[in-house]
Each structure stands twice: as structure tokens, then as C-alpha cells.
Amino acid sequence: MTFRQLVLLFLSLQFLSPVALLSQAKDADLIITGGTVVTMDSSRAIYDDGAIVVKGDTIVAVGPRADLAAKYTAAQTIDARGKLVLPGFINGHTHVPMTLFRGLHDDVTLNDWLYKYIFPAEKKNVNEEFVRWGTRLAAAEQIRSGVTTFADMYYFEDAVAEETKAAGMRGVLGETFIDFPAPDHKNEAEALAYTERFLKKWQGDPLIHAAPAPHSIYTCSQKTLQDAAALARKYHAPILIHVAEMKKEWDDSQKQNGMSPVQYLDKIGVLGPNVVAAHCIFVDEADRRTLAQKQVGCVHNPSSNMMLASGVSPVPEMRAAGVPIGLGTDGPAGSNNDLDLMEEMDLAAKLAKITKMDPLALNAKAVVEMATIDGARALHMDKEIGSLEAGKKADVILISLDEPNAVPMYDIYAQLAYALKASDIESVIIGGRVVMRDRKLLTVNEPQVLAKAREYRQRVAASLGMQ
Amino acid sequence: MTFRQLVLLFLSLQFLSPVALLSQAKDADLIITGGTVVTMDSSRAIYDDGAIVVKGDTIVAVGPRADLAAKYTAAQTIDARGKLVLPGFINGHTHVPMTLFRGLHDDVTLNDWLYKYIFPAEKKNVNEEFVRWGTRLAAAEQIRSGVTTFADMYYFEDAVAEETKAAGMRGVLGETFIDFPAPDHKNEAEALAYTERFLKKWQGDPLIHAAPAPHSIYTCSQKTLQDAAALARKYHAPILIHVAEMKKEWDDSQKQNGMSPVQYLDKIGVLGPNVVAAHCIFVDEADRRTLAQKQVGCVHNPSSNMMLASGVSPVPEMRAAGVPIGLGTDGPAGSNNDLDLMEEMDLAAKLAKITKMDPLALNAKAVVEMATIDGARALHMDKEIGSLEAGKKADVILISLDEPNAVPMYDIYAQLAYALKASDIESVIIGGRVVMRDRKLLTVNEPQVLAKAREYRQRVAASLGMQ
User: Fold this and answer.
1) Contact B418 A307 (CB under 8 A)
2) Looking at the partner chain, which of B110, B347, B419 has a beta carbon nearest the beta carbon of A102?
3) Which of A35, A180, A252, B117 lies 20 to 30 angstroms, CA to CA, from A287?
4) Do B102 and A408 touch (CB under 8 A)?
5) H-type helices in A186-258, by residue range?
6) Same domain, A55 and A114
7) Domain boundary residue among B378, B404, B429?
8) Is pLDDT above 90 for B110?
């Protein structure tokens, strides 16, 4: 051994041995460690002192911290001790740009709201710029409340997609088809052309799933519905649609089609394993069987259905029939008025209980499932998101238990459904990227967005002759 | 003029002239200035750039800032620019020490919950110490969510009163009468003796209104109900009671008394202008007339009524009949599970709408009234609290509008009812005393209370053989 070799040996023993040890551990990018990990996997495993290992945008391991700490090393560690760690919440149905109309004429009938207020307000105000600012505001609000994926239906949806991606959020984003002139298209041909460009542009994107969104059977002709469905199938895209939301829709379908909205959509070939049906209030046993057989995903929107007095979706029966059913906030104007999915959990359980006059109708665990893994199933994304498991996208939220409403905690699911609030969400990770840390947003310029929202308030009010 | 006089004149011109000017202004202790002041006075006046002047524990002036700034000077000024300023919320019905049982066995029938879980848990755990820590925890949670006054029914209510006063909160605090052995009394004689001492002790207190609280007609004999009422009248105290909460209670009253719970309470002489009746679900037109005639205050608890599947109080009809009706969270265990009155506003409106299948059934302004001035009327305290007016107690909350869910704002009442959250409450003043400033609690040692709640979790769980 030469002197040089001796020196090298000495150095390696002194300095390199920790590296040598570490090199036995596998490389990762991020470890979230020490929290109570509520996986929502098929066994509903909960690790009291757990860890989640992330590489790139994907979870590579979930389990007890003691097991994983030795096996992995990562550039970034997030200490989750004393916190709950969950898969990000999934908002299965909304219209995010409408944040800028939040609270514009509530407490009116749906008909008055649409025709007297919202359609005129949209006609006078909605353009691509409006949609971008509305989406940014919604991203801030949704990230703050633990939503990592949302399904949207609006206009200029390509701009919604760009802003969603910029905010680091995951979206199933539907360009609306409606048989009257809309803010971004004059007719169906324009809608089809826009949507085909939109679908092509986002193919293969890790965060954005572009979709056609035929509005409903009462605003779209059979041809529009079928064209939108054909386009979706051509591009292996989902279809977003409002289904059986209103009694009038059901009555009219009976008159015009001799069958329910669900049966009509089935008959004309729209239903299938890529359809996401929002609301599904007026669905009888046969409809529920059809929805289950055709593997349609459904989204329950308790706030909206209560606020607009639409009716109550038979959620327990849908679950019993095997229909995947998630939760949605619906739009933040006229029908909610926020984007807080934790409130929808609370409401879904309480609404089912009072409707059935049965406190066992829908329990806390069920509504947490609806906000996570069942929401993923409803969006046909359960291979990708909805639970904390190796191979799934690293969409993870950390929830603080350091507020008076968070203690004591006897049951984790009850705490999530009934006691914890959006304001308890502390950090949010989407596809391995930290988008909120200790309640500080990292991907949205929040002061700028708030200022712009206030500007839009003045502009929209002026356009409608309000103060 | 001597040299000395000249010097004094010079000094007074240099330094004293502002004081001289100020001395023309009236002295006050606190001015809250620049916010959007939502008074909830009889004209429902709103001042966009308003001010509230406080001396001692009382409001001396409310109006436009420009008018009041020149007239008053105060030791302390709170800048409320960009914020909403409201009268503190009134939680009309709860059981605060039960915070320590939060989430202990939800999603069961009321019967199972009471007899299998809560009664055994209370028997094994509730003592004066438990009640003190539960009240402290509840004070932290309620102040954080903008509640300044609450009506409570529990045991060891004198300890509840001491802790409520220590936290600087206002309370209508009822010692429970129940015809079986309770944690703090073995029989009615003991309950009467305890309550009389309790009523005497707190007479004339500026924050605490002590009360007897006969639990209900199904847990108290006619004699207990009448004795409690007589005691209340002797001391000019309110009476807190659960009324017509359950279908079984109504059915049994029909069988046993040949009349509804409300008519029975009227017949035996309990109803009067000092009664606060929680729930009032099963009340028909005649009952509503009786409640109005007897000037009974009622408290609607939408979360609890939904969670326990009790039924839905006919709130619009109660309001139409002239019954003062407020809002309550009910206890934070089994029936909510939090103390967030803003959620009750949202729920009250949405529950009425869906129940009546009418989006106009109960609007945003109505539920804000229920949380403030109507809540005060329901507690028979509307001369004291419930609105921001000269002569009333200075119970004032400041609400931040600097979160994504708070913008844009087209309608203040809609924003309060449907979009703003407890977490937006920024500062809270009760009787002129600042108890929370910029979300920092000033009267409760929050870390200590959270730690103790976690300790109680272990103790209660062990007592019930849980993990």
C-alpha cells in the first residue's frame, strides 16, 4: 500500500463511511415522516407513526416509519409528527372560474338565478382573462382546503387547464357543450373544433386530463351529446355531464323520451366507463343498476343540491348498487358558495342521515372514502390517485391537529368528517411537488389573485348595474 | 408675563396643543375604526367605513368613522380597515364540557349513543375538573369561531361559570335537572340546593347569567319541571330546556299527557318570557302560537338535528309566527362535532331550502339574524347584546376578508352565511375586553388546554376499554 493509498483509506474511513452506509439506502426525492398515515388503501390501513416515500411524482413506499427510514434517503424530508397524512381530496364536480361570481344573487330560484343573473353576468364578463383569474383564485382556495384534483366544466377550458397546471394541481377539465351561444363558441361545430384541439394538446400530460363536457340532456340535443361522446372516445378522454339534477329534467325526459335521463343517455350510447355524471338525484333502482353496469362514475354535491333545493341523491343506495360515487362542491356561485370539500363530507353524512331519518345512513368513514378513493373511482382515476399506495401519484395532504376543534380525537374518520376544517390543512403535495407548506401557497401569487378578484367585483357589479 | 410664564406658554403651544384639541373630544376606552360595520340594528344599518366607540364594557357610539373620529379619543384603537365588523355570534344551545368527548362514538342511534356510550363515559369521567378543562377547550374553540355568548346545559355548572368568566366570555349557564343520579347530584333536592347556591352566587354578574336547566319532559317529572321553573322565577333567571326534539318525546307526551310537549309545558306553568327552548322540532301551528304568546325563545340546532336524524324544526314558520329563534351547535360530542356557529348559519339556510324544496325558504340575511340579534332575543338578552348599538355590551368580532374564500364579495350576508369560515374570524372583543387579537387567544392558555385534552383522550378511552 502506497502512502497515497493509505491516505485515501484513512479519508474514506473518516468521511466516506456514512456515505457508504447511505448508499445502501435507495434514493428518493421526498420522505414525509412521522405522521398518522391514513392510506385509504383497500385494507384502509392506518400507520400511527408512518412514512411516505416519493420519487418524482410517484409514491414508492408507504408504511411504518421505522421500516422505511432505514431503507430510503431523500433530498427533502417533511416532518409530519402529530399530524394526519391523507391522500389529497378530490373535488369531483365544479365550475372554478365562477369563483369570480361568488355570492352574486343567492337565495333565488334556479331559473331566476340562471336567466336573470348568471347568464347575463357571463355574457357580459366571461372571456379568457376572466377564466384565468377565476381559476387562479379557485386554485388558491382548493389547495388551502386540501383538494389536489378537481373535475371542472366551463368555457375556455384550455385556459383553465393552463392555470391549473401552473398552480401544480391535477384536473379533469371539461370544455362545455351547450346548444346555445356560449362565451367561447357560437355553435356546436365551434365547440367540437375547440374541444378537439384541446384534447390533442393535453394528451399524455401528467396533471391535466382534458375532456368534453356536454352540459346536460336539457341543454344539448341528442346529436350534441353523441358527438361529444364520440370525440371523448376517439381520444380516450372522460366525459363530464350533469345528470338527473332537476325534477323538471326528469319530467321532461319522461315526456320527450318516454324514459328517465339515465335510461335516455344509455339508449343513445353515451353511458360508459369514461362518463362522470354529476348530481344523479333522480335515479331509481333501474337507473342505479344501469349506472353500475355501465361503470359510470357519479358525483354527489350536497351543498349545491340543498342550496338550490334540487333534491337529495340516494347516496346509500348508489353505494349499495356498486356505483362509484364521489363528492363535489359544484360551482362557487349560487350553489355553495365555496370550494371546501371537507364541508361536503360533513354535509353528505348529515344530509343522508336526516333524509333517511337514520343516523346510520352514511357514516364518517364512508364520506372520507367519497372524498378520496371513491372520488378517484368516480373520475376513473383510481389507478392513479385516491389513496396512499406505492405506484400512485404522490398527492398528499398534511392536516394539523393543533387547534381546539381538533382535540381530543377518538376516531380519525369522525374527526375528519365532523370536526376538522379546511383551515386545518397545513401542507399539500401534488405529484411530489409541495404546493402549500405550513399554509403558505407556493404556486399561486395569492395577494395578486385576491386584489384581482376585488377588481373583478367592481367590474362585474358595474356590468350589471349594481353598486 | 414672567420668563417662567413665557416658557410655559411656549411649551404648551409646542406640546400641549394636540392635547388641548383632544380634550374637546370625549374619552373612551376603545375605538374600532375603518371596517365595514354590520350593525344588525333594527334598520340593519351597515357603515362601509364605520367606527365603534367603547367605554368600559359598553358601546357608546356606532356610525361612520368620519363622524366619530373627531368626537372621541380612546386609549386603544383597533384598525378594522378591509374587515367586516359584526356583533359577536350567539351560540344558543350547547353542552361545552362535552368537547372532551368529541367524536366518541358517532354514527349510532341516539339511544345507543346515550345508553351505551355517553352515560357510561360521563359516569366514569365527569367531575368538576373534567368540566373545567372541557369548558376551557370550548372557550378557545368558540372564541376562535366568533362566538361571544353561549347558552349551556351541563353538570357542575358553577365550574362552567367560573371558567367562562375567566375566559372573558358571556354565558347563560344552566345547571341540569334530571330525574336520575347525575355526576353532581343524586336527587332533585341536591339539584335544587346546588342550583339555588349557583343562582345566588352569580346574581348581578356582568358576564354570567346562571339558570336552572330542567333537561326535558321525558327526563324530568312534572314536579321537577315546576320546581326548576319556580326557582328561576324567584331569582329572575332564565330556564333552559330541551323541547320537542324527538318524535318519541312527542308520541309519549300524547299518550301520557294527551297533548304535545309544548302544550304540556304550558299547562303545567313552565312556559314564559324567561324560557329558552332548544330544538323545537315537533311543534305544530298551535304550538308555535303558544310559544309566541308566551314569549318563549327557541334555538334551532341544524347540525345536531341532522346528525342524530331527529327531524327538522319548522324555522320559517316559527319566524312567521313571531317566535324569536336563534341558532345553536348543540354539544360537540355525537351531535355536531364542533362549536362552529358559522357552519350552523350555512346549514340552517340550506336545510330549510332542501326541506321545503324552496331555495327562498330561509335566506342568508335571516340566518345571520339568527346568529346575532334573533339569538339575543331567543336568550331574552336583546337589550344587552345581539347588535352593535349605543348602550349595548361591546361584544364585537372582526372578520378578515383576506382569504381566497372571502373574495369577491357581492353581498355581505351571503358571504357570511355561505362563504366565510370560522377561521376568518380575526379578533374578538367581549364586554370591551379583547379576548382574541389577530387569531391569538388572550384569555385561554391554548397549548396547555390542547395538551390536557389529549391527556383526557387517553383517560376516557382507558375508562371505556378502548385503545
Assistant:
1) yes
2) B419
3) A180
4) yes
5) 188-202, 222-234, 247-257
6) no
7) B378
8) no
- Domain count for chain B, please give it: 2
* Whether the Cβ atoms of residue A64 and residue A50 lie closer than 8 Å to each other: yes
Over the stretch A92-145, which tens digit does the pLDDT of each residue have? 999 999 999 999 888 887 778 888 888 889 999 999 999 999 999 999 999 999
When pLDDT is cut at 50, 70 and 90, the band that residue B107 belongs to is confident
One DSSP character per residue, A59-94 reads EEEEEEHHHHHHHEEEEEEEE-TTSEEEEPEEEEEE
**Cell digits of residue A191:** 365547440
pLDDT higher for B181 or B155?
B155
Determine which of A38-42, A102-106, A315-319, B390-394 has the lowest per-residue pLDDT on average: A102-106
Question: Are residues A164 and A78 part of one domain?
Answer: no
CA B186 from chain centre, in angstroms, equals 29
A39 & A105 share domain: no
**Residue corresponding to grid cell 358571504:** B415
Q: pLDDT tens for residues B196-211?
A: 999 999 999 999 999 9
Residues B133 and B222 in one domain: yes
A291 and A363 fall within a common domain: yes
pLDDT of residue B394: 98
Nearest of B313, B328, B309, B248 to residue B108 by alpha carbon: B309
Is the link from the previous residue into B337 a cis peptide, with omega within 30 of 0?
yes
Q: What are phi and psi of B191, to 5 degrees?
A: -60, -45
Name the residue with cell 365551434. A190
Would B454 be classed as within a structural domain? no
CB contact under 8 A, B103 and A409: yes
Contact list in A for residue B411 (CB cut-off 8 A) is: 103-106
In this prediction, residues A178-195 reach a mean pLDDT of 94
Query: Cα separation of A279 and A275, whole Å?
Result: 13
The residue written with cell numbers 404522490 in the block is A394
Decide if pLDDT at A1 tops 70.
no
Cβ distance B446 to A353 less than 8 Å, yes or no, reads no
Where in the sequence is the domain holding A266, given as residue range(s)? 89-378
Question: A436: domain CATH number?
Answer: 2.30.40.10
Question: How close B150 comes to chain A (CA, Å)?
Answer: 17
pLDDT, one tens digit per residue, over B215-266 is 999 999 999 999 999 999 999 999 999 999 999 999 999 999 999 999 999 9
**B209, B91, B170, B92: which is closest to B429 by C-alpha?**
B170
Chosen from B84, B418, B439 to mutate, greatest number of chain A CBs within 10 A: B418
Cross-chain CB nearest to B408 (options A349, A405, A453): A453
A126 and A184 housed in the same domain: yes
Cβ contacts of B107 on chain A, cutoff 8 Å: 349, 359-360, 363-364, 414
CATH number, residue B267: 3.20.20.140
Give the pLDDT score at A17: 44
Same domain, B82 and B94: no
Q: Compare all CA atoms of chain A with the CA of B140 and give the residue at the minimum distance.
A: A404
Q: How many CB atoms lie within 10 A of CB B200?
A: 10
Using a CB-CB distance cutoff of 8 angstroms, which residues of chain A are in contact with residue B453?
Answer: 404, 407-408
Task: Classify residue B467: in a domain, yes or no.
Answer: no
Average pLDDT, chain B: 94
Interchain CB distance below 8 Å, B364 and A107:
yes
Contact A457 B357 (CB under 8 A): no
Q: Per residue in B285-317, pLDDT tens?
A: 999 999 999 999 999 999 999 999 999 999 999
Assess if residue B116 is contained within a domain. Answer: yes
In-domain check, residue A122: yes
Q: Which three cell numbers stand for residue A457?
A: 367585483
3-state SS, residue B216: coil
Separation in Å, CA of B448 to nearest CA in chain A: 11
Half-sphere exposure of B334 (CA within 13 A, CB side): 22
Q: Is the ipTM of this complex over 0.85?
A: yes
The rounded distance, in Å, linking the Cα atoms of A168 and A423 is: 20
